[in-house]
Request: fold
Amino acid sequence: MTQLRVLYAPRDIAGQPSTWARGLRRLGVHAEVWSFGEPAFGLRPDRVWDADRLLAEPDYRWQVLDHAVRNFDVFHFQYGRSLLNAHEPQLPALWDLPLLRSLGKKVFMHWHGSDVRLRSVHMEREPDSYLKDAVVDEVKIHAMVEIARRHCDRMFVSTPGLLDYVPDAELVPLAIDADAWRTERGAEPRVPVVVHLPSKRATKGSHLVDAAMRPLHEEGVVVYRPLSGLDHAQVKAEFGKADIIVDSLTIGDHGMVAVEAMACGAIAIAHVHERNRGRVPGCPVVEAVGADLQDVVRRLAADPGERARLRTESVAWARSRHDVPAVARQLLDAYREPPVKVVADRPDWPLVEGRGRITALEAEISRLRQALGRQGDRAATVPPRSVRDRVEDNPRVHLLVRRADALRKRARGELTKQLKTLRKRG
Reply:
């Protein structure tokens, strides 16, 4: 049998593609992770493509596409983005999905969270919704999901709650290397350490966590340690020293933090909506919302026996449901299924947000000019295009300007640092 070749792109979202790739390699599959732009949080994809060149150089974009088409059979995309859709300004969003299918490739789309959550739905179900003050283009989300539905072999979601928005997707549990996260634990401490490590404070309800935990810390009930800006290795080290780890209170799903917490033997706390708990019966993530988090943690701090029980259940759950071998086998089964027929040859392509606004403004200007013409008035004078507009029309010049600007900022920073040093010496 010919070796299957799988590409994950365009980002290593939460390190999940890298974890899947490692699992697939153990099963004899050639798998690579590509990142378009430098990865965050110390992640290490197999290949990083220059984001500036992708934006500015058409030849570079087509080099990426050519290399991908020649070397991979399966394309597993993330977060509603495909191989080059965000970098090809003259073509519609996700334009390369039907192209890849026409070349005989398997194509999959994986939704991870804010890429498909609809504010209108989330606000109804979550009183502390993180989308309360957000601007969400629900029309665009519907359109992108529909294009993926028509042109992908299958869609995946990473958490149970996302099935509310993509009900025909397959749930692929968040994957983790359970052995790598195994942590030896001693007796239950008298004062447990509580950690909160949000990827984005506004998204995870960190203000609610702080408000609940700081009083307990001051009382000596717990030791509260809010963390941020850690790379993957640092997260492992900190979680290994924590007894209780608080994930999100404002989403209604637990995330990667809770899975990592359980895998290392800590107790995970998050708000998981009852609809989502029904989809994964037996999940040992402790339930809490902002209003009762303090009481929940206080009870756990006072009950070492309950903490020990939860630790045991959590480790077993993480290993049985989230360990990478099981997730990799689930993905491989999907990749090996016969191709699914494309539902439509050509969907109604949504415009990307910025270009859509420009199109709408141009149409409005045209309408106003026609109205002025009918009234016999002289058409309004359009101001000349700015230097910035003209620069942005030439991608190569735009790239040079961006690089020069970055060098200028770096030089200014170095000069400021040297001046501060001289002032201290003086």
User: Anything to note?
Assistant: The chain has a mean pLDDT of 87. Residues 5-175+330-336 form a domain with the Rossmann fold fold (CATH 3.40.50). The longest helix spans residues 395-425.
